[in-house]
Amino acid sequence: MFTSTLLEAAAPQGAGSMQLVLLVGIVVIFYFFMIRPQMQRQKKEKNFRSSLAKGDKIITIGGIYGRIASVEENTVLVEVDDNLKLRMDRNAIREKQPEK
After folding, report:
1. pLDDT tens for residues 54-86?
2. Residue 17's pLDDT is what?
3. Are residues 25 and 68 in the same domain?
4. How buried is residue 67: exposed, middle or buried, by Cβ count under 10 Å (0-12/13-18/19+)?
5. DSSP state at residue 73
6. Are residues 32 and 72 in the same domain?
7. 46 plus 8 within the same structural domain
């Protein structure tokens, strides 16, 4: 009879700590599968956009192919055709054209 009273008293404390461990585990899993990859992707995009230079062949988010004519702080001048240049925000550039 004495031992059953001891087990009943210990059960709620064990259950509470188990819930805390599960909650911490879920937060850690969420961090490694959701937050961390997003932060790495943003850092990679920031480094890419800061490395843009005159003469790079690029593709914009809208699918426009061109060559960078000049680079400014927040914008780039993209030469699309011989006498056609477009001023675009750096964030509008998706990637560099693959070399053939």
Report:
1. 999 999 999 999 999 999 999 999 999 999 999
2. 87
3. no
4. middle
5. S
6. no
7. yes
**3 state SS of 17:** helix
Tokens 């925000």 correspond to what residue?
Answer: 89
Euclidean distance between CA atoms 18 and 14, whole angstroms: 6
| Token code pair at residue 75 | 């914008």
d(CA 79, CA 70): 9
33 and 65: one domain?
Answer: no
Single out the residue of 65, 76, 73, 69 nearest to residue 55, CA to CA. Answer: 69
Query: Which residue segment(s) compose the domain that 70 sits in?
Result: 54-100
| Total domain count, the chain | 2
Give the pTM. Answer: 0.67
Convert the pLDDT of each residue in 32-49 to its tens digit: 999 999 999 999 999 999
